[in-house]
Amino acid sequence: MPKTEKTTSKNDSRESENEIQKPKAPSKNHKDNTSSEGSSSASQPVDVSTEDRKAVNEVSKLSIAHETIVNQDFMVKENNNFSESSSLESNFVETMYNAFWDHLKDQLSKTPPDFSCALELISNIKQILVSLLLPRQNRLKNEIEEALDMDLLKQETEHGALNVPHLSNSILNLMAILCAPVRDEAVQNLEGIKDPVELLRGIFHVLSLMKMDMVNYTIKNIRPYLQEHSVQYERAKFQELLDKQPNLLDCTTKWMTRAATDITKPLPSTSVSPSSSSGISLFPFPATDPEPPSLTTVLYQGYLNLVLRDHGNEEFPETMLMDKARLQAMRSKLHHLTILASVLLVARSFCCGVLFSSPDFVEKLKSITKDLTKEFSSKPEESMLSVSDQISQEIHQGLKDTGLAVLSSENRASLVGQLRNIAKKENCIRTIIKQRIHLFLKCCLIHGMRESLLDFPGGLLFIEPELAELGWKFVNLMHYNQHVFSPYYAEILKNIISPPNAEKNEEKPV
Fold first, then answer.
1. Main-chain dihedrals φ then ψ at residue 6, nearest 5 degrees
2. Count of CA atoms in the C-beta half-sphere (13 A) of 258
3. C-alpha span between 466 and 164 (Å, rounded)
4. How far is residue 185's CA from residue 174's CA, in Å, rounded to a whole number?
5. Structure confidence by residue, pLDDT tens digits, 487-506
6. What value, to the nearest 5°, has the Cα angle with vertex 70 and ends 67 and 73?
7. Predicted confidence (pLDDT) per residue in 223-233, tens digit
């Protein structure tokens, strides 16, 4: 009964190009059943049909394939304990896990010993060992069958002739042959365990690591194939889900409708932040223009909305669900970069650029700001209070060390005040930085990363490495999504814009 495993990933993505197939038109009838969760129903057992299990299995396959493609560092890692979550479910699993081994210990302590549960475990061990074999390893398969002949072992237990030490050695020898070199030490450590229950428990733990190694080996080997056929594979799997759930694109339709609405809004008469929560378009579309927006323009507006706006409990487009956590992480990163750039811009204005000519000094201020603003989202005033005190002190000491005139009491008070004001959403410096970051992302989508980096917005130079890295990930991820789902997006757009002009505004992915 090995412990569970979990998958972990680092944010990364890549671009892929393939042919487009014609999808079936999505249905407009949809009722959201996922948003309402009653406490009473949550405590009752749920009957899961075979169809539901198949659907979950297909979604799981699609998610793993997608993660393998967009995240080059994707791999399976071990979950060493159940204490990572304080949920009732994790506590229940841990309790049952320990109770199982206690039960096994009680069975083996009887006179004569009861081997029924142990035989089931050995049968599971046999299945795991066989699953670790490569297709052509027939000799090893025969060795496993011979060493763990369940019929023979059952007969031995019935006659009290089961040789536990010999059986244990056979299992450990097979594990030593099949395991990766990194697991050699773990298998060797099992040889020193004399207690049969602890030995079985250790065997299952190491086998779980070996299964994890095999999964990662498989992922590594199938990645080139998936990269070549990823677009067709994801689109085909999504179409299978859509065939079973015709309303699967309803949230995507709402998302694209909002993006199209943002674009076709008349240009405001006054200067407004493009990230305004009211949905001001990042692709202004003159109200007098008779031509409807193109598919690419609508998609780019929609993509930017996903990382520039706080969606809260708002429905997320189904075509982006597999990247929801990744996009939320990008949004959080953008928020912190806005604060960081704002702090550096204010600090530089009080140094006249002298101290900021030193990369070491700039990196020191960045490190201080990043560390003190980790909880900015929940405690903006407190965070900026600490930042203002520390940054002003560093500037004072930096000017003093270089032999320059230190800030006067009035200037230092002004510096502290301006830094603390960054905590306010309406702060003008913070608003300007936010606008320039959003403009940079827009240019990355339209013109590409290389051209955008050549014309980097002013005021953002000190966060260029961080912003460029995030920009690459965002653009690659969005372009990949566009390649996979653009046929569905085109069908949706036909129902959003005026039908007479829809045909000529269909565009292939960039």
1. -135, 160
2. 20
3. 58
4. 14
5. 999 999 988 875 544 444 44
6. 75
7. 666 666 778 88
pLDDT, tens digit, 9 for 90 and up, residues 316-325: 899 988 888 8
What is the tally of helices (H) and strands (E) in the chain?
19, 2
Dihedrals phi, psi of 35, to nearest 5 degrees: -80, -20
User: Does residue 293 have a cis peptide bond before it, meaning omega lies within 30 degrees of 0?
Assistant: no
Here the tokens at position 420 are: 């603390």
Q: What are phi and psi of 290, to 5 degrees?
A: -75, -20
Give the C-alpha separation, 108 to 115, whole Å. Answer: 7
Q: Which residues pair with 5 in a beta bridge?
A: 78
According to the model, what pLDDT value does residue 24 have?
Answer: 46
Q: CA-CA distance, 434 to 212, in Å (whole number)?
A: 42
Q: Give the Cα separation of 235 and 478 in Å (integer).
A: 15
Closest CA to 461 of 427, 433, 441: 433
Q: Under a CB-based contact definition with an 8 Å cutoff, are residues 491 and 80 in contact? A: no
Angle at the Cα of 355 from the Cα atoms of 349 and 358, rounded to 5 degrees: 130
Q: What is the mean pLDDT of the chain?
A: 77
What is the rounded average pLDDT of the residues 428-455? 89
| Chain centre to alpha carbon of residue 343 | 29
User: At residue 469, what is the residue type?
Assistant: E
CA 467 distance to own-chain centroid: 18
Contact predicate 501/37, CB 8 Å: no
pLDDT at 90: 59
The DSSP symbol for 3 reads P
**Which is higher by pLDDT, 184 or 18?**
184
The answer for residues whose C-beta is within 8 angstroms of residue 267's C-beta and 6 or more apart is 284, 286, 287
For 14, what's the count of Cα atoms within 13 Å in the CB-facing half-sphere?
18
Mean pLDDT is lowest, of 40-44, 343-347, 355-359, for 40-44
Rounded to whole angstroms, the Cα distance separating 206 from 429 reads 55
Six-digit token pair at 419? 């830094």
6 three-state secondary structure: strand
Is it the case that residue 331 has pLDDT exceeding 80? yes
Distance CA 186, CA 314 (A): 47
pLDDT value of position 54? 54
Token digits of residue 357: 């000519």
CB burial of residue 376 (10 Å; 0-12, 13-18, 19+): buried
In angstroms, how far apart are the furthest CA atoms of the chain? Answer: 94
